[in-house]
Write a structure and sequence with these properties.
alpha/beta, about 30% helix, globular, disordered N terminus, binds iron/sulfur cluster
């Protein structure tokens, strides 16, 4: 990929914030506002109702895969055991695909389900346990899940929003995670304050820098494979994720020179047109152009590495999905004969299953592609 992170846009990238909504930066969950879009079915209806007929059959994701010479997506062996412990978060970012927020405390994994996850983990050959949310650290069973996974020799990932580390209950976490070799994967939309606050709310950047400093002080981001600090960047605005390599170099230079912060690697993700990002696209009149961008940017080279091929995604209530995005859209893994809850996982029945797909999948295959591990193609 030769484009810079300013390229491939239907709006200018927000390095100067032009084209980005200048309205309220912090929002609340769709659910707390009782919006129809809070329902996954409504999100699917909205996505399906956008007229992209000029693209012919290629607006159907499966047909686009087929036309590129690929086969219908199927799951391979489970390598990533991803647990979404719930929708509770100390933040409420505008682009959130989870519709997480401080009001979502009811949707939180309980102890019985956390224990069932650990039992199920032993039935898989997964090498990695990926803990996400919401803010996973706010779940009372987060440390249990980390301890049990580490005890089983798994690589553990904490998907961290950074600001949560400043909460009193989490202040010891950088050292606690470092002692257990947990990789911390942190969201930081930009190395500049203005751009980060535009996506995540005023004051977020300053808190994020403070949290990164604490992680650095705990040994993270210094090249130690047992203390890996990964930054995650989502574009600010209706654009694709930029070139991961050039962004990593830019972020490294910006954070080091201005804040003395170091990190190990950076991954760039596309925003998925679901949940609050879908709301933002609708309210700014960008939904059609963004879907057009995703469809036009379909890149078959990403197909073999899509995360749904090797991930088991588990919801806060134990339900099983092909990926975190399908989870948010309520699209359960499609195996009629298998129990779809982690409490009675039938790993053999899930092997080779057809992945449930939809228009949102173009978000994973656009440009350099996008997965929990970053660019693909
Ligand atoms: S994007 Fe992450 S930090 Fe922001 S509200 Fe959603 S879960 Fe929380
Ligand atoms: S959203 Fe992405 S990861 Fe999920 S099923 Fe579609 S292509 Fe796979």
């Amino acid at each position: 990929m030769s484009e810079t992170h300013e390229a491939r846009s239907v709006q200018p990238f927000a390095s100067d914030l032009s084209g980005v909504d200048a309205g309220p930066k912090r929002t609340t969950s769709l659910q707390s506002r009782r919006l129809p879009l809070a329902a996954p079915e409504e999100q699917m209806r909205v996505l399906g109702s956008v007229d992209l007929s000029r693209f012919g059959g290629l607006v159907d994701f499966d047909k686009a895969v087929e036309a590129s010479g690929g086969e219908r997506l199927r799951a391979g062996d489970v390598k990533i055991f991803q647990i979404n412990v719930g929708k509770l978060c100390n933040m409420a970012c505008r682009h959130c695909h989870v519709d997480a927020g401080p009001d979502r405390w009811r949707e939180s994994m309980d102890e019985a389900t956390a224990r069932a996850c650990v039992r199920a983990l032993d039935l898989t050959g997964a090498h990695t346990v990926d803990l996400t949310g919401g803010a996973p650290e706010l779940n009372p069973h987060f440390r249990f899940l980390v301890e049990e996974s580490v005890a089983r020799g798994k690589h553990v990932i904490d998907r961290c929003n950074l600001t949560v580390l400043l909460l009193h209950r989490c202040r010891d976490l950088p050292e606690w995670l470092a002692e257990r070799g947990v990789e911390v994967v942190c969201s930081l939309p930009h190395h500049r304050q203005r751009n980060t606050d535009a996506q995540r709310g005023d004051g977020t950047f300053a808190k994020s820098i403070e949290a990164l400093r604490r992680l650095n002080n705990a040994g993270y981001g210094q090249g130690d494979p047992e203390k890996v600090l990964t930054l995650v960047v989502n574009p600010v605005g209706a654009v694709l994720a930029g070139n991961q390599c050039s962004m990593e170099a830019e972020w490294r230079s910006g954070l080091e020179s201005n804040h003395g912060i170091s990190f190990d690697r950076l991954i760039a993700l596309n925003n998925m047109p679901i949940s609050r990002f879908l709301e933002w696209l609708q309210s700014n009149g960008n939904l059609e152009s963004y879907l057009e961008l995703l469809v036009n940017s379909f890149n078959p080279a990403t197909l073999s590495e899509l995360m749904c091929r090797n991930t088991l995604s588990i919801g806060w209530d134990g339900a099983i999905y092909d990926c975190d995005f399908n989870q948010m859209l309520g699209l359960s893994s499609a195996v009629p004969t298998a129990p779809m809850n982690i409490r009675n996982l039938d790993i053999d029945a899930l092997a080779g299953r057809k992945i449930v797909t939809g228009r949102h999948c173009f978000g994973c295959t656009a440009g350099a592609g996008s997965s929990c591990g970053g660019a693909l193609g």
